[in-house]
Amino acid sequence: MAERLTLSRQLDEHAARRRLGRLGATTLEPAWMALWAAPLGMTGKPPGAWLLGAREMQRALLLTGAELPVQVERPDTGIQLTGATAPTPEATQRLWLWERMATPRLWRIQALDTPPTPVWLPCWLGYRAGRKHQLTVISGLSGEVLSMIKPLVLAGLERAHDHAQADTEKTLPAG
Amino acid sequence: MEGFTLVDMTVLIVYIGLIAWIGSRFGKDQHSPEDYFLGGRKIPGWAIGLSVMATQASAITFIGAPGWGFEGGLERLVTFINVPLAMIVLIMVFVPVFHRAGIYSIYELLERRFGPATRTLSALLFLIARGLATGVVLYAPALVLSVVTGWSVNLTIIIMAVLAISYTVLGGMSAVIWTDVIQMFVLWLGALLSIFLLVTSLPGGWSDVFAFGAQSGMFNAIDLSLDPSVTYSLWAGLLGGFFLHVAYFGTDQSQIQRVLSSPSVLDAQRSLLIGGYLLIPQMLLFLFIGVILATYYQQHGLTPPEDLNELLPRYVVNAFPTGMAGLVIAGVFAAAMSSLDSALNSLSAVTVRDFYSRYIKQDASDSHYLKASRLATVFWGLYATLFAFFAGNLGPVIEAVNQIGSWFYGALLGTFLLAIFSHRSNARGAVTGLIAGMLAVWSVSSLLDVSWLYNNTIGVVVSVSVGYLVSLTSTAPRPEQLSHVIIEETAPDMQAILAARSANAPKIGREARLTRRRCIGLFVWFVVMLGLLALLQGWANG
């Protein structure tokens, strides 16, 4: 299996703080979401954009650029959210077909016949404590609100919480 | 009176050619795939918002609203006074749910929540309603062409239909935002120039307009009558018009498509915000032109055309300086093409996604679906053309478009409200509510003398009530059916996790919330607009 690439975080804490603050969040933390990037472009030419997705997502995220903005270092600070599974090439093709159907301007661009690359997508998680606790997820690349991956983020947080609890129980002295 | 001269015709052809060139230059022949994507992201939000407005209603407004104003003054502005309030609901409720669900067609949400029958029925209603409304949109530029050339309107409908269908099948250019923005400015320029020329042609100028308007009650925009048969009372505008616009902007795929395609919720909100702020002033501008035209016709002893939709195009052709008439008429054509392209695209997209790829051919190639979508475009183009022949009998085109939607969209909105807010409602209730809602609208509008503005309200109330009550007769939906409409983090376990993480995360500090600020801004705008109308009416009535 290909090594998971780390997309470099382009929205620093100061910028994320401002953006999430405008969205009503009161606290924030960095996170990394495990997704898969499928290249898009014209046949026989290098990619021009990437579809970021997972099998569990109904619609993929679009990342523009000929190359993925990758950093050499592994994800540093921030919770790593896993649990999503890789989309099949057929599913990616179909997702892209419907994207193009919705935006006919994109018709010429195709999902290239290359297996999707596993990536860590940097995000910022904003929390708001009101009558209920609410979560806002923004991209660590562009600062856009990523509502579509929120179910995956919540599932990842739950998974991380369960792991942490299991670890705590293991380390507790018996008896 | 100069008429449509050779210079105007040259300007028209050059303008259309230039717009087509910009469309093909920036829309299709990009050098790399990256250009396709980055092109859209460099465009400022205000331009995207204006582009949405241009696609929505510019040609229809230009042609229909002056006739409306000529006939009834500013009283019909109440139809649009509720738009800021409708946008608040869309921004706070619909956009987040639609965006989070990750859907291409909004009717998919109904399938996830209620099953395939509700999706199919609602998508079918959209196709019927939008197809009919597209006929009216097609009629508008055909009428202008008829005024310009003197040809029969039936012939110009066929010409415009052939142009619009070919243009859409060949790829269209509605996605080129700057061409939409140019069209919007050309139409506004046309409106302002009309006002200038009309007012300067009156001996007393503005004072004649205000005197005539006040004397004939044309500034009485606020009618407080509680009688439901009064078509444009304030209550019909607030209660009926509010649901009309929530339904129109929230349950019509051709309107919500750009919201679904927006990269983020905030971008989606922005395009609605621009509509929320600009629709009332734009409508006021064009209704006011109607009032000025009424003054002009009265002072010059002229007989208005039988079809009031012809008022402004006729004036532009006859009174504008050489060249300017060509420019404005070209703007109307281009804006109409943009609306037609957008409507036909969404009709064919829903046909392929919600019907063809589900019931006829499930796993075909991309090129097969492209071919199917082109055939669907031709089919809906022909359907719209058939209806366009009757559109001239429906009165002002702007009212016709809204009336057609009001037969269907109220019940559809009720079904979406049930899907989002009632966790007890189920498929049986949704389908029954949808059908009952439409039957109620048709019964009330044909049997009782009630303002058509209430149609959507009746549709919403009946479909929600019947839908909810019928739902109680069968089992409640499963939790996974609710997962697309409920806020996932509200589950008790998740709340505990979020509380723990939030407690350990760095604090942001107190800052205003953007969405709330935007909604408050829209509400203030609504109050300001209503206040200004009340002041104008108070002044006119001494």
TrEMBL record, chain A:
Entry superkingdom: Bacteria
Protein name as it appears in the record: Uncharacterized protein
From TrEMBL, chain B:
Main localization (coarse): membrane
GO MF: monoatomic ion transmembrane transporter activity; symporter activity
UniProt protein name: SSS family transporter
Keywords of this entry: Cell membrane, Glycoprotein, Ion transport, Membrane, Sodium, Sodium transport, Symport, Transmembrane, Transmembrane helix, Transport
Family of this protein: Belongs to the sodium:solute symporter (SSF) (TC 2.A.21) family.
Listed transmembrane segments: 6-24, 45-65, 77-99, 120-143, 155-178, 185-206, 232-251, 272-297, 317-337, 378-398, 404-422, 429-448, 454-472, 520-540
PROSITE patterns membership: NA_SOLUT_SYMP_2, NA_SOLUT_SYMP_3
Record InterPro entries: Na/Glc_symporter_sf (IPR038377), Na/solute_symporter (IPR001734), Na/solute_symporter_CS (IPR018212), Sodium:Solute_Symporter_SSF (IPR051163)
Catalytic activity: iodide(out) + 2 Na(+)(out) = iodide(in) + 2 Na(+)(in)
Cellular localization per UniProt: Cell membrane
Membrane topology: Multi-pass membrane protein
GO biological process: inorganic ion transmembrane transport; sodium ion transport
Recorded GO CC terms: plasma membrane
Organism: Vreelandella songnenensis
A Pfam family reported for this protein in Swiss-Prot or TrEMBL: SSF
